[in-house]
Amino acid sequence: MTTYDVIVVGVGGMGSAAAYQLASRGQRVLGIERFTAGHDQGSSHGRSRVIRQAYHEHPAYVPLVLRAYELWERAGRDTDRELLTVTGGVMVSGPDAGLVTGAQTSARQWGLPYEILDHTEVHDRFPTLTPREHEVGLYEPGTGFVRPEESVLAHSELAAAAGADLHYEEQVTGWTATDSSVEVTTTSGRYTAGRLVFCGGAWSPQLLAELQLPMVVERQVMHWFDPIGGAEQFRPDRHPIYLWGETDDELVYGFPAHDGESTVKVAYYRRPHTCTPDDVDRTVSQAEADEIRAFLRPRISALGGRHVTAKTCLYTMTPDHHFVIGHHPGRPNVVVACGFSGHGFKFVPLVGEVLADLAIEGGTRHDIALFDPTRFAAE
Fold first, then answer.
1. How far apart are CA 222 and CA 265, in angstroms?
2. 32 CB contacts (<8 Å, ≥6 apart)?
3. Which of 84, 127, 118, 87 lies closest to 100, judged by CA?
4. Backbone angles phi, psi at 118, to 5 degrees
5. Partner of 154 at 20 to 30 A CA spacing, among 22, 205, 286, 306?
6. Is 90 buried (19+), middle (13-18) or exposed (0-12) by CB count in 10 A?
7. Are the C-beta atoms of residues 267 and 220 closer than 8 Å to each other?
8. CB neighbours of 222 closer than 8 A, spacing ≥ 6?
9. Which residues pair with 337 in a beta bridge?
């Protein structure tokens, strides 16, 4: 049986960053991943993920995401990969909707630059976008996107270069912990360590069942359209990142055409369809393509045309839509990170840093009180 300082379960977005941070601090690290590196079965794929600063969900995220920007840049330099691209972004909604007012609150609290544009100003600046008369846009210059598959590969490379052992296509089947050690059983063997870090993504409800965290897994869909009139109008210097809608159930987000692609990615933030990662329907119907096309046609008319392809993605949702990051309530040498609720990927390198802090030092300088795993206990 092989012994390590820390075992990381799950080597997707969060787990690869955690493995890197731990190994770079001199820990003997084992990362265990049930699929291949940079796979498309969970939540760390789809070519692009939004990163933004004026966080409408809660102002407490702002200092965390600002640190994430620094770490994205560092990981990109260290691996010679382009992980982060800043394009600017606009949040379009009614002037009193939480999407705009929440972002404005965060921007004011943390001194972030932003502009409020009326519907004509949005269209004048970004001709691809046609808001309705009552809508406004909160424009933030720091918004951009990160590349999820490249991120996983980059952090995995950094982890391996720092000495981590990364085991792929190996499934965790069980684990136990005492106050001083942990043991993890997989389809290939057994491993022991002093500490354990869980980054199980959509498999977290199964792996952490004893915590009874009120998390549900939802199937979401990402779509790619062939723009009417070509992709040039959607290049990053012409077309921004956008979040658009009145409520979470009618919130669409999208990206420029980037990295030489001729298609443009769009998706609903949520179309709740509860599943498990083992029974999710990965077939996307024509009705799903037609539904988002109907949303797009009056707002981004060039995306009202041919639907090219689609991919499913898994969100692991908490009731308050905030993350779960912290020590296992019953095992101080076990750290958990899960429930990222569809908006967590931008924080990947920051979460890796936090998890290494918690596993090695027992605490972190970052304010993660919002993500306390015990906050649901009284519900």
1. 7
2. 7, 8, 9, 10, 11, 167, 170, 172, 184, 186, 191
3. 118
4. -80, 180
5. 205
6. buried
7. yes
8. 46, 265, 266, 267, 310, 311, 312, 313
9. 325
With 0-12 / 13-18 / 19 or more C-beta atoms within 10 angstroms meaning exposed / middle / buried, residue 279 is: exposed
* Tokens representing residue 182 in the block: 């942990």
What would the mean pLDDT of 12-17 be, rounded to a whole number? Answer: 98
CA atoms within 13 A on the CB side of 139: 16
- The bridge status of strand 264-268 relative to strand 2-9 is unpaired
Residues whose CB is less than 8 angstroms from the CB of residue 17 and which lie 6 or more positions away in sequence, other chains included: 151, 155, 348, 349, 351, 352, 353, 355
Task: Classify 168 as helix, strand or coil.
Answer: coil
pLDDT tens string 87-119: 999 999 999 999 999 999 999 999 999 999 999
Q: Is the pLDDT of residue 300 over 60?
A: yes
CA 374, chain centre distance (Å): 22
pLDDT at 226: 98
Determine the Cα–Cα distance for residues 106 and 305; give it in Å rounded to an integer.
36
Contacts of 288 (CB under 8 A, 6+ apart): 221, 223, 271, 310
d(Cα 220, Cα 271) in Å, to the nearest integer? 6
Contacts of 291 (CB under 8 A, 6+ apart): none
Q: Looking at the whole model, is its pTM more than 0.90?
A: yes
Among candidate residues 88, 136, 123, 52, the one with its CA nearest the CA of residue 235 = 88
DSSP 285: P
379 token code pair: 């519900």
Nearest in space to 249 (alpha carbons), one of 265, 272, 267, 222: 272
Distance separating alpha carbons of residues 81 and 154, to the nearest angstrom = 7
Distance from C-alpha of 117 to C-alpha of 354, rounded to nearest angstrom: 36
Q: Tokens at residue 135, please?
A: 């809508």
Q: At what angle do helices 62-79 and 348-361 cross, to 10 degrees?
A: 100
Contact residues for 199 (Cβ-Cβ < 8 A; gap 6+): 8, 9, 10, 11, 12, 14, 15, 18, 337, 338, 355
3-state DSSP assignment of residue 245: coil
